[in-house]
């Protein structure tokens, strides 16, 4: 009996992407801190994508440890200081993710906008591009390095700098809704939105500064449920999951094949 022919690996529709992970991705729902189970889930999904040859940059938040805005109004800690505290919280998440990915035999580089030479490389655009071109996953921490700027805005900025094709916005719901689905059972889930619709309806995808940057730079966003195992791979392969935000249609396996990409 003849042996079955080897199957070809699936073909991604994107060559380079940026994954935006909130701090809450690193902990169990309703909790804070770090969950090894959740960190392992992130590493498994991102490793699958990296093994396809997709260049992957990851911007991580720090809300599971500390969100600077939560200390607004404190009589002890200045708000600017609180934002710097929040930025350093992202370093903790980045270090955890780096170890988890390397445990999956995925080469990584951790890059920071606040100098911590014992922990990570300083973010330098050309160096980050070199890492991506050499097959390393680049984990980006400490946001933009400036207070009063969210990691969403950092993701939009780095997405443009690193020439990615899409920002993958990881969430705990399966897309963008007209209203919070946990509060309104009649909320409508969108398959495709323009940036103008997002701003007009004030839909909570990313902060408006980040949305404006993506609009200006024609950088689409795919909002999807990252908690469901395998969804990141489905997104990379062009399956119709989540909500596509952008001025042009989302690429699919069929359109990618037709255009030869």
Automatic annotation (TrEMBL):
Keyword set, alphabetical order: ATP-binding, Cytoplasm, Kinase, Nucleotide-binding, Pyrimidine biosynthesis, Transferase
Q: What CDD domains does the annotation carry? A: AAK_UMPK-PyrH-Ec (cd04254)
| Pathway(s) the chain acts in | Pyrimidine metabolism; CTP biosynthesis via de novo pathway; UDP from UMP (UMPK route): step 1/1
- How might one describe the regulation of this protein's activity? Inhibited by UTP.
The molecular function terms in GO held by this entry are: ATP binding; UMP kinase activity
Q: Identify one Gene Ontology CC term for this UniProt entry.
A: cytoplasm
Q: Does the keyword Kinase apply?
A: yes
- Residue numbers binding ATP: 20-23, 63, 67, 171, 177
Q: Which EC number(s) does the record attach to this protein? A: 2.7.4.22
Q: Which compartments does it reside in? A: Cytoplasm
Q: Where is the Aspartate/glutamate/uridylate kinase domain?
A: 16-225
Swiss-Prot/TrEMBL GO biological process terms: 'de novo' CTP biosynthetic process; UDP biosynthetic process
Q: Does the keyword Magnesium apply?
A: no
InterPro entries according to UniProt: AceGlu_kinase-like_sf, Asp/Glu/Uridylate_kinase, Uridylate_kinase, Uridylate_kinase_bac
Predominant location category:
cytoplasm
Give one Pfam family, short name only.
AA_kinase
Task: Provide the catalytic activity annotation.
Answer: UMP + ATP = UDP + ADP
Report residues binding UMP: 62, 144-151
Protein function: Catalyzes the reversible phosphorylation of UMP to UDP.
NCBIfam families according to UniProt: pyrH_bact
Homology family = Belongs to the UMP kinase family.
Listed under subunit, the entry gives: Homohexamer.
Record protein name field: Uridylate kinase
Can you name the source organism? Isosphaera pallida (strain ATCC 43644 / DSM 9630 / IS1B)
The gene for this chain is pyrH
């Amino acid at each position: 009996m003849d042996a079955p022919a080897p199957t070809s690996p699936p073909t991604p529709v994107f060559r380079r992407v940026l994954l935006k992970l909130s701090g809450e991705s690193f902990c169990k729902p309703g909790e804070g801190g770090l969950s090894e189970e959740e960190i392992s889930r992130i590493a498994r999904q991102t490793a699958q994508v990296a093994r396809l040859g997709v260049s992957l940059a990851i911007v991580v938040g720090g809300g599971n440890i500390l969100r600077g805005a939560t200390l607004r109004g404190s009589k002890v800690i200045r708000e600017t200081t609180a934002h710097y505290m929040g930025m350093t919280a992202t370093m903790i998440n980045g270090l955890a993710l780096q170890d988890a990915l390397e445990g999956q035999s995925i080469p990584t580089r951790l890059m920071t906008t606040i100098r911590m030479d014992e922990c990570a490389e300083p973010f330098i655009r050309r160096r980050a591009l070199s890492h991506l071109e050499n097959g390393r996953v680049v984990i980006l921490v400490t946001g933009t390095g400036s207070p009063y700027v969210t990691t969403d805005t950092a993701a939009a900025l780095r997405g443009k700098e690193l020439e990615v094709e899409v920002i993958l916005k990881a969430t705990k719901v399966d897309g963008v809704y007209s209203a919070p689905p946990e509060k309104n059972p009649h909320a409508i889930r969108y398959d495709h939105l323009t940036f103008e619709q997002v701003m007009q309806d004030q839909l909570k995808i990313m902060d408006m500064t980040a949305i404006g940057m993506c609009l200006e730079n024609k950088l689409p966003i795919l909002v999807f449920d990252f908690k469901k195992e395998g969804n990141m791979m489905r997104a990379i392969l062009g399956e119709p999951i989540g909500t596509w935000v952008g001025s042009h249609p989302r690429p699919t396996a069929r359109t990618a094949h037709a255009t030869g990409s």
